[in-house]
Design a protein that fits this description.
- There is one protein chain.
- By secondary structure, this protein is mainly beta.
- The protein has one domain.
- The protein is built from one helix and ten strands.
- It has an eight-stranded antiparallel barrel with strand order 2-3-4-5-6-7-8-9.
- The longest helix has 16 residues, at 3-18.
- The radius of gyration is 22 Å and the shape is globular.
- The model has no long low-confidence stretch (mean pLDDT 85).
Length: 224
């Protein structure tokens, strides 16, 4: 019996022994970023609000980046997903932004092979369509920056099996599956431009990024 066939047999056996139902899961190749920025500009359309000076902004992006699935295509990066951004200072009355983005990247430098672990530097460009949450304004955004990645190639089984105590006793919390594609962690420094209705500001963002490979498998859900 092959190793991979044995692996899926183990899923069934583990589910039976733990009294769980295997729920299939398929996750696409993804890139997730989160960070903070120093932003300047007009954050409020109310002229009575003093929004001069730098402000803290926070942001999260999450998107599907299909080239992470293919070996030999690591000179480029491209993806699309969702973006959330907010200026937390309540004095300004600035509503959070939610929208979609499309991103493209070109590799400038790489050291090492991805199969063995590599460092890469990308120049990145991103266009955004933004909506004001709690308001009726729409707008656009543009981001230009650099991204540094430490990545490796995944082509292996994944197992996360544990037991947690609860009021009903021990509960199995498990995942069994397979990962394929690029996996890694990195950082991005970017200059961002925003125009949403009367609100217009620029921000210099520093983000921590994560690349997640394609993952297919089963969550083992306890039968109550």
């Amino acid at each position: 019996m092959s190793e991979r066939r044995s692996w899926w047999v183990m899923v069934v056996v583990a589910a039976a022994l733990s009294g769980c139902v295997p729920v299939p899961v398929l996750s696409p190749p993804m890139k997730v970023g989160m960070g903070a920025a120093l932003a300047t500009g007009d954050f409020s359309d109310d002229p009575a609000v003093d929004d001069s000076g730098g402000q803290l902004a926070v942001g999260v992006t999450a998107g599907v980046h299909p080239l992470q699935f293919f070996e030999g295509l690591d000179e480029f990066d491209a993806g699309a997903g969702v973006i959330f951004e907010a200026v937390p200072d309540q004095r300004l009355g600035a509503n959070p932004l939610l929208g979609g983005y499309a991103e493209a990247g070109l590799r400038l430098w790489q050291r090492g092979k991805i199969e063995e672990g590599a460092g890469r530097l990308f120049v990145l460009g991103r266009g955004e369509l933004l909506n004001e949450l709690g308001g009726d304004s729409q707008g656009v955004g543009l981001s230009l920056g650099l991204g540094l990645d430490l990545v490796s190639w995944e082509d292996n089984e994944v197992a996360a099996i544990g037991v947690q105590a609860s009021s009903q006793g021990a509960v199995v919390s498990s995942f069994l599956g397979y990962a394929y594609g690029q996996s890694g962690i990195g950082a991005e420094l970017s200059l961002n431009f925003r125009q949403i209705g009367e609100v217009q500001y620029n921000a210099v963002f520093l983000k921590l990024t994560f690349r997640v490979p394609v993952t297919a498998g089963f969550y083992l859900v306890p039968v109550l």
